[in-house]
Request: fold
Amino acid sequence: MKIIKSAALAAATLAAGLALGTSASPAASAAQCGRASWYALHSRTASGERMNPSALTAAHRSLPFGTRLKVTNQRNGKSVIVRVNDRGPFVRGRMLDLSRGAASQLGFVSSGHTAVCVARI
Reply:
């Protein structure tokens, strides 16, 4: 039973890495695109650190904490590098929740959500 769980975990981790273009081949480094929103709480994140709305951080459902992502706003071409420190988003159709600071640098604070492309760095 333990071997099956380990194999399932390895498969899920591999699938998450491939979805964000982390394969060893250079041709597979394409970014994943989807919707992102922002949030600004003052509670603790899933990683245990206190949420800092002005920091450049993000919430992702499956990437390991500490993973760095280059997020590009498809509407205006602005980019920012964020660090995954939380889990989420928990809204259907969204792939990433960004801190208010990251959303501000990407230029979508007023709209609340936007189309982005994400690449793991």
Observations:
- The chain is about 20% helix and 30% strand.
